[in-house]
Amino acid sequence: MFYWLAAETGLRAGELCALSLSDVELDRLTVVHSVWHGRIGSPKTDNARRTIALSPERAELIWEQVYRQKKAGHNLLFSTGSGRPWDAGLVLKRKLHPLLDSLGISRGAFHAFRHFNASLLSSLRIPLKVIQDRLGHSSVGVLALDVYMHPAWEENMEAAMLAGERIQKAVNSVSLTAVKEEGPPTQKSEALEAA
């Protein structure tokens, strides 16, 4: 779910690692903190403090994660067994890189999810100002966009819905292809799907 959320929202890895349960609402996430080397602090910039709409597909998974974290007595959406925030560098090294290696995909970093998200939203014809707002960027270098345009919440919601649908469609397509080529799911493929 961490990777899927990174792909749909374009949040920085440190922002994802710092999400507290109180930052999660039914259809949105609010970014107010970031984690750097296991310590919670302020986001990168003032514009990084933002609220991002979630697709219905992600909202359900996030609420399952919220339930698990509350049950464990933790306050963060993603945490270690002791409740401390994840260190994105360790997650990259211990989880993402081995997963990419097992799938035969070239290694990348979490920032690739931000590039993917911006490209996906652009391909869906989401207005540049909405993309800028969702990514938490301060400017695009165009006065009219940076000063005079303010995206409506409905545009943020539409971006989330379209991105969620497109990602879900791609995942379903890959899953169906894998089943046709490899047969029914195995324990290993189920574990990869859960990751």
Key features?
single chain; 195 residues; mainly alpha; hpI Integrase, Chain A; 3-stranded antiparallel sheet; globular; disordered C terminus
Structure description:
The chain is 56% helix and 8% strand. With 195 residues, it is mainly alpha-helical. A three-stranded antiparallel beta sheet has the order 1-2-5. The chain has a two-stranded antiparallel ribbon with strand order 3-4. Helix 1 crosses helix 5 and helix 1 packs across helix 8. The model is unreliable at 184-195 (pLDDT under 50).
In brief:
With 195 residues, this protein is mainly alpha-helical. The chain contains 9 helices and 5 strands.
Radius of gyration: 17 Å
CATH class placement: Mainly Alpha
Largest sheet: 3 strands, antiparallel
- State which percent range the strand residues make up: 5-15%
CATH superfamily: Intergrase catalytic core
One letter per element, helices H and strands E, the order comes to HHEEEEEHHHHHHH
Oligomerization: single chain
Unreliable segments (pLDDT under 50, ≥5 consecutive)? 184-195
Strand order of the largest sheet: 1-2-5
Number of domains: 1
Strand element count: 5
The helicity comes to 55-70%
Q: Would you tell me the overall average pLDDT?
A: 84
Structural class: mainly alpha
Q: From the 3D coordinates, which CATH architecture would you assign?
A: Orthogonal Bundle
- Bulk shape: globular
CATH fold annotation: hpI Integrase, Chain A
Distance between the termini: 7 Å
Number of helices: 9
